Each structure stands twice: as C-alpha cells, then as structure tokens.
Amino acid sequence: MNKTRPHDQAFPSDVGGVPVEGLTKREWFAGMALSGLLATEAWGDACNKHMVSEWAVSHADSLMEALNE
Question: Which pLDDT belongs to residue 43?
C-alpha cells in the first residue's frame, strides 16, 4: 500500500507533459476540515481564526496518519 505523504499532490496533472503543481494532500485535507469546522454554528465568537486553522491542520494530519495504518 502506498503511504500518504503530506506533500504529495492532491490532484497531480500535467499540461503538455509539464507537471502542474497544485494543492498538497495536507492542504486539501486541511481545507476540507476547515470547511466542515466552519459549517457549524457552534463556533460563534468562542474561537479565534488561528485556533480553528490549527484544528483543521491537526485533523488533516490525523487523517493522513489513519490512511497510513
């Protein structure tokens, strides 16, 4: 089984044989986690942006760890 590495491209592609870099898997997972975290109204003013961003990255890292088990 291939390991999920944080800096692997989420959607590798090329244009005319030239690799095109986009989001890494870690960035993609963190963005998806952030979207879910912000979708709930439970946050309100209780958390600052930095805290929520750190949680999103933490969830992304946890997902990659789980995928590598």
Answer: 63
- pTM > 0.90: no
Q: What is the pLDDT of residues 4-17, one digit of tens each?
A: 777 777 777 777 77
Taking the C-alpha atoms of residue 55 and residue 69, their distance in angstroms, rounded to an integer, is 21
In angstroms, rounded to a whole number, what is the distance separating the alpha carbons of residues 3 and 21? 19
Measuring CA to CA, which residue among 52, 61, 51, 67 is closest to residue 29?
Answer: 61
Q: What is the CA radius of gyration of the chain?
A: 15
User: Which sequence spans correspond to the domains of the chain?
Assistant: 24-35+47-69
